[in-house]
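User: Run a structure prediction on this.
Assistant: Running it now.
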Amino acid sequence: MVQLFCKVFNLYRQRWRSKALSTQGGAFSRRPAKVTLVAAIIACCITQPGYAQPAEDENKPIRILHRQLDSKSIPQIGNPMRLEVELLNTFDITSSVRLVGAKDGRFIDIAFPRGALNAADRPTFQIEIPSPIAAMTYQFVVHQRNGSLSSSEKFTIKRDCIQNFKVVVPEDVPNTEFRREISTLVSQAKILERDTASLEASLKLVEDIKASLAN
């Protein structure tokens, strides 16, 4: 933007100098310089896409942008997983957006909290949900201005492997039965730890939604 401003400013300065020399016999006036500088700034702003004029067309249907997580970016099981969407052709940060799908075979339907404008002046909505154990299929639903509903394409995230907390105890070791009981307790403790993390993430989601509704 700075380079473009300099080019426009130099162009206007050259034109002003030639005009001033021809009309005033080489006597320069300071007043036109201020006008020229303002004109250069205005011209620079106009030539910047999306700066003076919004790039969004609010006469078109609202569109949804989302970048899907790859398998390596999925948090550990039960930890918060952030999903983010951007809306096109609108500036309304109060638009109604929902997350609909199935996580580990269970149906989910979650409303996004109030959004915010990002650096590109697009409404951005974020939500954190407990990461799936194995896989999750989902899409987003947005309310259009005329009251109709539009849905995005379907997305699927899947882990490369599933955590297994089962401990195998060989048959030919001393105290086999006792070792099996201990291994069972260890497995149950790991599963409980995972479920607790998932519950904490769910509680945080409920608190975020309550805070959003309060605002």
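The mean pLDDT is 74.
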